[in-house]
Amino acid sequence: MKYLPDEKWAKLPIADFRPRFFVETYVEKLSMNTPHFSQSRLMNLFSSCAEALAYIQEYQANEKNGGYILSALDEIDSCLSNDPVAKDFFGYMDEPRAQLFKKIRGGGLQSRPIKSLECYLQSNIVS
Predict the structure, then answer these.
(1) Read out DSSP for the chain?
(2) Would you say the pTM of this structure is higher than 0.70?
(3) CB under 8 Å to 88, separation ≥6 — which residues?
(4) What whole-number distance in Å separates Cα of residue 114 and Cα of residue 82?
(5) Which of 9, 33, 52, 117 is 20–30 Å from 60 (CA)?
(6) How far apart are CA 1 and CA 34, in angstroms?
């Protein structure tokens, strides 16, 4: 966690500590390095998508790692269903995501569905 030095805060025209507390708490909640149990729910979604991308790379190195991708899809579904903010942000992608996840769960770990999943994760969630 990176904190701003006291000198920077002292230069701001704020006499109250609450804005500083809010900013530092907000930054910590959104940090990928914060433990999952302290992160905001939306960060759990981002973390799950980053894990899924890592699992895709592992699968490409060794096809026996396909099960990790399937468990990552379950985690992403869980994050999206439990987080009202994520539903608002990513709800427009529910139908394409459901179709893609269904295809992959039905044995579609070939290169085209995996490439589609990779694109989905990178363009709609992680970036």
Answers:
(1) -----HHHHHHSS---SHHHHHHHHHHHHT-TTS-TTTS-HHHHHHHHHHHHHHHHHHHHH-GGGHHHHHHHHHHHHHHHHH-HHHHHHHGGGHHHHHHHHHHHHTT--SHHHHHHHHHHIIIIII-
(2) no
(3) none
(4) 25
(5) 33
(6) 8
